[in-house]
Amino acid sequence: MISSDREIDTLERIHLSHRPVRQRDLARIIGLSLGMTNAILNRLARKGLLQIRKVNNRNIQYVVSAKGMEEIARRSYGYLKRTIKNVVYYKEAIDRLMAEVTEMGFRRLALIGSSDMDFIVEHLCTKHHLAFDRLPAPPSEARSEGKAFLLYSENARQPNESSQDCASLRALFSTRPPAPERSGSPK
C-alpha cells in the first residue's frame, strides 16, 4: 500500500503520459526537486509498482507495472466511494432543507450562483413541488415579499443578515455529523 499521495501521483503521471517521460519533466510536473523525484521513483521500483529500464547511458524509461496499475485502480475506487458517500450525504441534507422550505409555505426556490450540486437541488425541487430558478446573483427586489426561498450555492456569498427565507449550501454542508462508529464485524 502506498503511503504517499506524491508516489501515486507520480505513478499516474507516468501511466497517463503518451510518450516516454524524463525524470526532470516529472519533477517539474509534480512540483518536487529532482532529488526527491528520483527517491520516489526508486521507492516505487522497490515496491514493484514501477519498472525502470535503462535505454542507453542517457535515457531511462519508466513503466508502470501491473501491481502499480492495481494500486492506481484501488486509489481511484476509494476516491469514487468517498465521493458517492458525500453526494448521498449532501442529497439527504438538501432534501431535509427542501422539506422545511415547503413546510414554511414557499412554492419557489432560487439557487443563487453556480453550484456543483445544482442537479440535486433541481431534482429535489421537483420532488417537493417547488418551482426552480437559477440566478447568477440575488434578485434586486426585497426578499421580504416571500416570492422565493433563496438558496446560496457553495460558491456564492450569502448576505450576513439572518433570515427565514434563505440558506447557504456551504453552511448546510459544513454541519456534517461525525462518521458512524465501526462495529467489530466485517461488512
Share of helix, binned? 40-55%
Low-pLDDT runs: 180-187
* Name given to the CATH architecture of the largest domain: 3-Layer(aba) Sandwich
SSE pattern, N- to C-terminal:
HHHEEHEHEEEH
Q: What is the number of beta strands?
A: 6
The main sheet comes to:
4 strands, parallel
Strand order in space, largest sheet: 4-3-5-6
Shape annotation: elongated
Separation, N- and C-terminal Cα atoms: 21 Å
Strand content: 5-15%
CATH class of the largest domain: Alpha Beta
Cα radius of gyration in angstroms: 25 Å
Query: In DSSP terms, counting alpha (H) and pi (I) runs of 4 or more, how many helices?
Result: 6
Mean pLDDT: 84
Helix/strand/pairing category: alpha/beta
CATH topology of the largest domain: Alpha-D-Glucose-1,6-Bisphosphate, Chain A, domain 3
The count of domains is 2
